């Protein structure tokens, strides 16, 4: 019996440039109409429709119908993590210089510092936070995932993280997610998503309405400084 995972099926789905552009447009966790995705991919609506159906049937995208219109999003966090990891691998070996960075220097610096990766925080700040949490023994590695220590659970609750909800989600609780620009992991999984919600709800970060970028507020600068000094 051959129990080899069907990796070629997934690889074939992402081997097409148009389909890659579609999934990369959605990596921010957004929900977008087919027409917008066709424009972003630089293809006709008819061609985009065919690509979208392949991605939906292949399990990479999910579709939602609203009246006569259909809207598409990344199927789940596991798919988003795979895509971001592949993007990091495809960007080469030199840290901080992936080809998909914004065109201006100021935008590039902001992108590298803090942005979203599907439903969690990515970039320099996120990588440093995960490193600090591991050094302070809030989190420890368990195989390919991360688990909270007793100290970590206590501290995360004190910080305001909805720990029980994160633990009860039907997905990986916490995992290292390859960072596109830093070549070191940031925090993914349910815990990563709940921590991003905390940052937004408590005004540490402000989302950009048209991109993955997030801006750090003065309060956020102070709170992130404290997180980075855990150990």
Automatic annotation (TrEMBL):
SUPFAM superfamilies: Winged helix' DNA-binding domain. Residues 1-94 form the HTH arsR-type domain. This is Helix-turn-helix domain-containing protein. CDD domains: HTH_ARSR. Pfam families: HTH_20 (PF12840). InterPro entries: ArsR-like_HTH (IPR011991), HTH_ArsR_DNA-bd_dom (IPR001845), HTH_Metal-responsive_Reg (IPR052543), WH-like_DNA-bd_sf (IPR036388), WH_DNA-bd_sf (IPR036390). PROSITE patterns: HTH_ARSR_2 (PS50987). Coiled coil: none annotated. It comes from the Bacteria.
